[in-house]
Amino acid sequence: MPILESQISKEDYTQANVRVETRTNGVYGITHETTEAQLRGRGNSTWFSYPKRPYRLRFDKNTSILGMPEAKNYVLLAEFADRSLMRNVVVQKMASLFTDKIYDLETRYVELYINNEYRGLYVLTEQVETHKNKLSIESIPGEINTGYFMELDMRLRDQPIDPGHFWFIARGYPYEIKEPDPEDPLYIDAQTAYLADYLSVLDQTLMDHSDYEDYMDVDAWVDYFIIQEFVKNVDIGFSSVFLYKEKDGVIKPGPLWDFDFALGNADYIDYGPENWYGMLEYKNRMFKLMMAIPEIRLKFRDRYMDFHYDVLPEIQEMIGVLSDSISSKVGANFTMWPILNDYWWPTPSEVLQANSFLGQINYLQNFIELRKAWMVDEVLSERYGTGDFSIDNED
Questions:
Q1: Number of CB atoms found within 10 A of residue 163's CB
Q2: Domain count, the chain
Q3: Does residue 141 fall inside a structural domain?
Q4: Roughly what angle, to the nearest 10 degrees, separates helices 294-306 and 357-379?
Q5: pTM of the full predicted structure?
Q6: Please, what's the largest Cα pairwise distance for the chain?
Q7: Which of 23, 75, 305, 332 is the most exposed place for a label (fewest CB within 10 A)?
């Protein structure tokens, strides 16, 4: 029986037959075909707000698709709100070029068909998870000193389940435990309490400007926040902030996730290329506390200069190459989803005015150049040295 897209649920998987077709130098081929797979919807605002929907693809066994690491779980990003179709791809490439301290997710552009009906140009990427072939962390339920994987997610406050087992609050911020699986019968509340205490102690060491390196990988977090800050990620203090701790280890960041509203693509924040964002009040508390420490500010400045001169020129070149590579496919996507002249939340006016794919690429590259110029001036400024991150033209 055919699967209708309207019948695909966000909560429950539907059995799916998957075929991966490729065309290289005019030669057509099938690289993978299986009936042992399932499909469901995914996302929050992207699932409920937009007609072009994202999906989670799950195979019955570890499977490599288009050269990506073997795993059961994959994600199909619709990128409906990102008219350049590139922001998530660009951020993962930033991480790949910049640092080996953050696990970067592989991405591939694919044209998606459901029941032989074209659904648009999508980004196939890895599911954010721990896995032996990806971010490998040994997590054992029932043991306190084991590996942990978690997500900062402010939406946890709205759920009916009280904190203490599946999630916890540390210094006002809610975190969901991903690994070990809290639904495992061997998982104990003491593991949740341990994480809450650990992050609270880390917070205090940052406030005290002392011993914080005993609890966090400072260099990794500096690299992580440089990327987050450069792209002005709207969710830096809200959700999709993943972090992990290996056995006997310290807290580390990543992977980076969910950037379709970044790089000047959300009209409900200060989305322009100027001004600091992530370390401001009510954004990311850890980032704010880190940047109050002079030694960390120096690390941030030095590493930003590496990012500025070594990474960003390659990113700009990559955007040009990537836009050329998908230019023959975007026409069909925007015919299927004719949004280039329409407002969809949270499209900034400048993005709406750039009402062609080429216009979107120009806007993205121009934003990067302007952000790059602003940040290099700022990190070399006297006020940066004093820890002054106030917003220009603030009343």
A1: 17
A2: 3
A3: no
A4: 140
A5: 0.96
A6: 67
A7: 23
